[in-house]
Amino acid sequence: MVYHLQNIVFDDPDHAPELFDRLLTKEVVVCDEVGSGIVPLSARDRQAREAAGRLCIRLAERADRVVRLVCGIPVVIKEQ
Fold this sequence. Notes:
GO molecular function: adenosylcobinamide kinase activity; nucleotide binding
Oligomer: single chain
InterPro entries: CobU/CobP (IPR003203), P-loop_NTPase (IPR027417)
Strand content: 15-25%
Protein name: Adenosylcobinamide kinase
């Protein structure tokens, strides 16, 4: 299980694509929503936010189940 994927990506956004194969072996990956709200001022923070979002998209494409938690309520986005 991986918690706070966005923090891992924000620590080193250049290597986010390399995480993909390792993350596929995990049963559960948890990431805060990072694409909404105010656009970060720094280029590095914008790059990290973009990298986290793209990584989550790739993981969701391969996942059997994708759940978004909204106000403590699970919303199933994808289920196979």
